[in-house]
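Z., the sequence and structure:
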Amino acid sequence: MDLGIKDHVIIVTGGSKGIGEGICRCLAQERAMPVIVGRSPDEGGRLAEEFKSQGIDAIYIFAELADFSDCEYAVKQAVSHYGRINGLVNNAGVNDGVGLEKGTPEHFLKSLENNLHHYYYLAQLCLPWLKKFQGSIVNVSSKTALTGQGGTSAYAAAKGAQLALTREWAVELLKYNVRVNAVVPAEVMTPLYQKWLSGFKDPEQKLESIIRHIPLGNRMTTKEEMASAVVYLLSKQASHITGQFIFVDGGYVHLDRALAGTEL
């Protein structure tokens, strides 16, 4: 299937590692042009060079996305290089464990800066170009917005807000034919996920207990599966999809997890 995004310029935040890297690779396979934005210059630079060696015009831009001026710089650099923006993937963020009982107001606000504010900043900065080219926004959220997790109030609040903004922006931008959707993962193995697992006394046992409760296949979602959903939503093949939350989670959120590992 031709997704119709060849030569489309797509900004991907957190595009150097994990889900973001998977999205950039999927975009490159479709001959789109990824703009890799984030704070991992070694990985991001190598990824951009790899794409260039394949004939894909990709660039890496270093940015601390909690800072509006860095977001502004990233968009200006993308436009300076390509002359346009066709899509935005808001993906960067980290589950930083700022809870209610043990958190502080200062840490809560800082977490929102790191996980939520740049979704708004970048959408607003990219909007003139998205309107001009009838582009698309995809927000990467998390199952924590719906299931809760415990001990991560700020991250859950940010992820819930991202879903609310997805619907709000989809309504506001209807008149411009700019589509806005969200993809919601549950358990995806990324460097940040591995770091989180390492904090447990027995990481392998913890991982096994998680996998047991994923209904479809008793396995984690791959970053490639996440990427396929995101890139599809950016594409012309999804031209009448907007304001939707697409769960790529093996049924984790909506199916009874007691069914995991059983024969129906």
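Strands lie at 9-13, 33-38, 59-62, 87-90, 136-140, 179-185, 245-248. Residues 9-188+222-249 form a domain with the Rossmann fold fold (CATH 3.40.50.720).

Let me know what you think.
H.
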